[in-house]
Structure formats: structure tokens, C-alpha cells
């Protein structure tokens, strides 16, 4: 059957097979790109969102403890261990991938934490101790810090939602390309079959 094919039909069959090969190669590269996008997105959601949210949660707990201690004892706790833990969490959070908005909120948080530390140190070194004025400043500083943490937490949710949507769209595109690939392969396969099994049709004309 193959020997009976004319040079023209052989060329047409070869061209169809070449198109199939190029189509498979192209869709394979597109599939790989979309798979990499989804993989990177999933990694980013965990490393830069879930882990970062955990840092925010732990920081929130530490500052809440400071606020509760101040309310119960009307004085400052020793805080050396807690402050070291806060510095460690801030350092870890700063190493995550930050958007422009996150970077702004994080810088505000760092600034307010430094101001709180300076206030605490000033009160500990003061002979007057915890005055009403000092207490008000501490409470205001803690409130600003809690607001910064809340802003960062909300940003994590927004960014996580956007990354999830990006992964969903990439998977949908990949599924569409796979379906188109099957359709093209079926069409080209039928063309090859026509060329192989009806090689003389064009010659009779």
C-alpha cells in the first residue's frame, strides 16, 4: 500500500506527520509552562502566604500578651525573651516575598515595634516608672502595632486569593489546550488515513 503512493501523496503524508509532531511538541512545552506556573504558585501560597500568616498570628499573640500584662499588673513585664522572639519573627517575615503593599505595612510595623521598644526601655530606666502618660503612650503604640498586623493579615488573604485564581486559570488553560490537542490529532489522523488508503483519488482527476 505504501509503495503505491505517489511522490505527492508521500509528501502530503509526511507533512501531516510533521504537523502532528510539531503540534505534540508545542503543546508539551505549553503544558510544561502551565505546570511550572501552577507549581510555583502553590509553593508561593505556602511559603509566602501560609507561613507568613503563621508569623503574623504568633506576633499578634505576643503583643496581646504585652497588652494583657499591662492591663492586669499596670506595669511592664521583663519582656526580654518575648522581645527576642518578636525580633526573630520579624526577621523571618521580612525574608518572605513581599508585595509593595505588604512592604509598606511591614515597614510601618517595624517602625512601631522600634518605638514600643524605646518606650519600654525609657519607662524601665525612669525613676517615675509607669505613669498615666507613659501608660497611654504604650497602649497607643500597641494599638498601632495591632492595626499593622491586621493590615498584613488581610493582605495575606488578598494575595493568597489572587495566587489561587492564577493557578485555577492556568489549569483551565492547560485543560483547554489538551482538548484542542486531541481534536487536532484526530483531524490530522483522519487526513493521514485518507492520504494512505485513497492515494489514487487525486490521480483519477
Blueprint of the fold:
Elements: H1 7-73, H2 80-94, H3 100-125, H4 132-197, H5 201-204
Helix pairs in contact: 1-2, 1-4, 3-4
Describe this entry's structure for a reader.
With 205 residues, this protein is an all-alpha fold. The chain has a single domain (7-199), classed as f41 fragment of flagellin, N-terminal domain. The protein has five helices and no strands. The radius of gyration is 32 Å and the shape is rod-shaped.
Which key features would you list for this structure?
single chain; 205 residues; mainly alpha; f41 fragment of flagellin, N-terminal domain; 0% strand; disordered C terminus; membrane; transmembrane
Q: How many domains in all?
A: 1
Could you say which overall geometry the principal axes of the C-alpha atoms support? rod-shaped
Question: According to CATH, what is the topology?
Answer: f41 fragment of flagellin, N-terminal domain
Q: What structural class is derived from the secondary structure elements?
A: mainly alpha
The poorly predicted ranges are 200-205
For this structure, what is the CATH class? Mainly Alpha
The average pLDDT score comes to: 75
Instruction: State the end-to-end distance.
Output: 20 Å
CATH architecture term: Up-down Bundle
Largest sheet: none
Our Rg estimate from Cα atoms comes to 32 Å
Order of helices and strands: HHHHH
Number of strands: 0
| Proportion in β-strands | under 5%
